[in-house]
């Protein structure tokens, strides 16, 4: 669905489907160049990174593999729980692999710093991060994100895989919600 289909719920569109696609194509180009001949393993963080992963890997012109992890962070609300737990682990042995974590959005950076620490203990050849969106708090944190789609303001956004209480992931644009949606 597009933002126009949800005009009752949405406050403001930050990025259209077309803008997101253009930015993904640029990042895919950079990743192709950086990983030339190395067959990277893209590790998507479920569920939010599904759209980013699907579009990123298809925009690439070189080989890659995919695997997925699920971690708990926000639960159903809009505030971080502060507790990160692995709900689903990788099925791939990443020792000696060039691993690129694919994330939807970084807010506090808590989820990612936990993931990076955890994956480092498995001795990958390299470990980098791609995030489609990044909020100000993460931009100033210790987590080093090599590929960032867009730096966005400190607002809760939905669409392009990002949910509120499980909904809006299939919105193709990225937008903020009207306050009354949170109050219902
Ligand atoms: P962090 O640990 O960096 O604070 O939060 C990371 C996770 O929280 C993201 O992967 C995402 O699932 C969720 N999250 C953070 N900010 C937003 C947001 O603005 N909208 C949505 N829908 N999820 C968010
Ligand atoms: Mg995520
Ligand atoms: Mg969520």
TrEMBL record:
GO molecular function: guanine phosphoribosyltransferase activity; hypoxanthine phosphoribosyltransferase activity; magnesium ion binding; nucleotide binding
Cofactor(s) this protein cannot do without: Mg(2+)
Entry EC number(s): 2.4.2.8
Stored Gene3D superfamilies: 3.40.50.2020
EC supergroup of this enzyme: transferase
Transmembrane region(s): none
Keywords, alphabetical: Cytoplasm, Glycosyltransferase, Magnesium, Metal-binding, Nucleotide-binding, Purine salvage, Transferase
Pathway named in the protein's UniProt entry: Purine metabolism; IMP biosynthesis via salvage pathway; IMP from hypoxanthine: step 1/1; Purine metabolism; GMP biosynthesis via salvage pathway; GMP from guanine: step 1/1
Catalysed reactions, as listed in the record: IMP + diphosphate = hypoxanthine + 5-phospho-alpha-D-ribose 1-diphosphate; GMP + diphosphate = guanine + 5-phospho-alpha-D-ribose 1-diphosphate
Record-annotated Phosphoribosyltransferase domain positions: 15-164
GO biological process: GMP salvage; guanine salvage; hypoxanthine metabolic process; IMP salvage; purine ribonucleoside salvage
Subcellular location: Cytoplasm
GO cellular component terms, A-Z: cytosol
InterPro entries per record: HGPRT (IPR050408), Hxn_phspho_trans (IPR005904), PRTase-like (IPR029057), PRTase_dom (IPR000836)
Any Pfam family matching the protein: Pribosyltran
NCBIfam families in alphabetical order: HGPRTase
Family of the protein in this entry: Belongs to the purine/pyrimidine phosphoribosyltransferase family.
PANTHER family: HYPOXANTHINE PHOSPHORIBOSYLTRANSFERASE (PTHR43340:SF1), HYPOXANTHINE-GUANINE PHOSPHORIBOSYLTRANSFERASE (PTHR43340)
Protein name: Hypoxanthine phosphoribosyltransferase
Organism, as annotated: Acidipropionibacterium acidipropionici
